[in-house]
Specification:
The chain is an alpha+beta fold. Helices cover 32% and strands 17% of the residues. The chain folds into three domains: 143 residues, no CATH class; 70 residues, DNA Binding (I), subunit A (Orthogonal Bundle), CATH 1.10.30; 101 residues, no CATH class. The strands form five sheets. Strands 10-11-12-13 form a four-stranded mixed β-sheet. A hairpin with a 5-residue loop joins strand 10 and strand 11. It starts with 7 loop residues before the first helix and ends with a helix. InterPro entries: HNH_nuc.
């Protein structure tokens, strides 16, 4: 049965009240919390073989995780007093984990996506022989940082990168690789004034919905345009302190933790930049600026080998000119590319492209470089 609804009276009443018309967009930002998310927040014990490393990052049931060994045996008290003396936690498929698999060791690991940096460990203290447990501030595995070339770990002085490693920054860097936000991600509305939605909209309107860093026009995709506090103080809503930035430029601002951007949004930004002629790469810095932050480790290695600059956000079309895949980095003349999404990698391969995942680009960098010569 078809229903006809007349809203003209309501519209007249709204007009009489002098209410201001605002734009409204439906968004799928909220994702229901499933039992597995709660379990991962608390820590879930699994076998090493149950953890996936398709991208090179540790993943469990489609969620980015880190893993550690809870049982510290007789060293438990030492680790509780000084986390740097405990077992390291892993964030990627590093050489240490590969060695354990090669030896047939599938120890019981705990996987978690908690961002606090505190890990629940236990053991029987070697001096007292008493069962002891508590929270320890464990350190990240250095081999994992090297495997990902995280923040240029292979190319720079490593100590400062290791010492300053922060789980929030790390998960933020690779947020577009995963569908679900990690446990403990901050509420994005915390710290904002009650009238923030109105101020944000007026600021974006003032600049005609254009990113003030990369010049991207987002009039047709307003949800992807954020408003940035230039001095970092969310309570300072003076007009001189507010500037609109696309979600990609916003996430790359200093001290912007917890800005988890979905792969679909990151890819859409790249596509829009290309269609508007903004993805022009004249230097490696341009590539860094335009690419997904999760690609920076690969980009750092490619720069070291002096290969030609890649295209960022390349669309692959079939013989009917339908877009079937999107690549993070691509060399069209060589038909070589790097993809985050596996189905898109497969689709590009069917079109005659040689596609690397981030994992294979990192571990087979010389082969990749050779294919670009």
């Amino acid at each position: 049965m078809r229903l006809t609804v007349d809203l003209s009276s309501l519209q007249q009443a709204v007009k009489a009240m002098g209410a201001e018309r605002i734009d409204f967009e439906l968004s799928s930002e909220l994702t229901p919390i499933e039992p597995i998310d709660t379990q991962l927040g608390e820590g879930l014990e699994v076998n090493l073989e149950e953890i996936e490393f398709e991208t090179g990052l540790a993943s469990y049931q489609g969620r980015q995780v880190l893993l550690y060994i809870r049982d510290h045996g007789g060293r438990v008290s030492t680790a509780l007093n000084d986390g740097s003396k405990g077992n390291k936690y892993h964030i990627a498929d590093c050489g240490t984990l590969a060695e354990m698999r090669a030896k047939g060791r599938f120890d019981r690991y705990v996987v978690t996506n908690k961002l606090s940096g505190q890990f629940h460990i236990s053991g029987d203290d070697w001096e007292t022989n008493q069962h002891t447990e508590g929270e320890a501030n464990l350190k990240v595995c250095k081999n994992c940082l090297a495997h990902l070339n995280y923040q240029g770990y292979k190319n720079k002085v490593r100590g400062p990168i290791f010492n300053a490693f922060d789980l929030t920054d790390f998960f933020d860097t690779y947020s577009s690789f995963f569908k679900f936000m990690p446990s403990g991600a901050a509420n994005k509305n915390i710290g904002y004034s009650k009238d923030w939605d109105v101020l944000s909209r007026k600021t974006r309107e003032k600049f005609n919905y254009q990113c003030q860093q990369c010049a991207l026009d987002l009039n047709q995709h307003k949800r992807l345009l954020h408003v940035h506090h230039i001095n970092g103080v969310k309570s300072d809503n003076s007009s001189s302190n507010l500037t609109p930035l696309c979600c990609d430029c916003h996430r790359k601002q200093p001290l912007h933790q917890h800005m988890f951007i979905k792969h679909e949004d990151s890819k859409r930004i790249s596509q829009l930049r290309r269609s508007q002629g903004l993805n022009i790469n004249k230097s490696w810095q341009d590539v860094y600026d335009h690419a997904d932050p999760g690609m920076h480790g690969v980009i750092g290695l490619l720069e070291k080998y002096y290969v030609s600059l890649p295209e960022v956000g390349e669309d692959i079309k079939n013989n009917k000119q339908y877009t079937v895949a999107g690549l993070e980095l691509a060399w069209p003349l060589k038909k070589v590319g790097i993809a985050i999404d596996k189905p898109e990698a497969i689709a590009a391969t069917k079109q005659g492209w040689k596609i690397y995942s981030m994992r294979h680009a990192l571990s087979q960098i010389e082969q990749l470089v050779s294919s670009l010569r």
